[in-house]
């Protein structure tokens, strides 16, 4: 039986069971069938031992790969055992023994190293892809506040929040969801301020999500809200690290996912939707006045049309005669009833 005809196990937790580079290549190609962006980079060390590097072209930083991985392997390895020594490769790495770890590492942008004669592998952090710079979010422009915003990188977004809350009480939990494509979810909260029962409830709801994948924070919000049929918002989304940090300091929980520039805050009440980032940068009396003004406008916008219809259609006797005559005259050529007009 030829090597290409060998049946290799595909169990996700299967250990690496061969030290032959050709067999390892076939096993990897079985997992990533028809993946034109999976690159193989064979090398021969000074010890005459062959190694193979595998990575996804669009997820890997070529400069880091060449300068911190390939060059040290070719120039500094005098004994094979040094390959798995973290002091040789000038970037973070870890030894793995299962195919599941290898596949997850590759899909996260890491480079995997196989060495002839070794039934283990080395995952090397060479992540690097095109992403936009940190800038102020267009939808949440502020005058007196900071002018930075979240981007589509959860690690950098967490770093932005760390800058605003440099405290050991800021806790970060990492979870994984998605049965077909993995998405990492992060919970951020202050341990002595946030309600621990609420933290556990949010964590339980996220862990109970059963779906192929979650690509946006809005999808995650729909999965975790109390009532999935209500049209009213139950979570608060923002792209501003200062606004999110204020909510965390108030005892709320921030939820981040990778590839999303928005961060979700839970739990959220009605009053919280009438606050703006600028409220924290002005005198509290002025901020309170504007909050009352916003809330009053909301109440008026909700009830004024109903009051107008009720008075014009059913209680017109309470309207002064001159005003009622003016309203009636203006509606002579209107083909709709007051209900449809409103």
Automatic annotation (TrEMBL):
A Pfam family per the record: GerA
Gene Ontology CC: one annotated term: membrane
Family statement: Belongs to the GerABKA family.
Keywords: Membrane, Transmembrane, Transmembrane helix
Family annotation (InterPro entries): Spore_Ger, UPF0353/GerABKA_families
Residue ranges that the Swiss-Prot or TrEMBL entry lists as coiled coil: none
Statement: the UniProt record of this protein carries the keyword Acetylation: no
Subcellular location: Membrane
BP GO annotations: spore germination
Name of the protein in its database record: Spore germination protein
Topology versus the membrane: Multi-pass membrane protein
Chain segments annotated as transmembrane: 295-316
Matching PANTHER family: SPORE GERMINATION PROTEIN (PTHR22550:SF16)
Superkingdom of origin organism: Bacteria
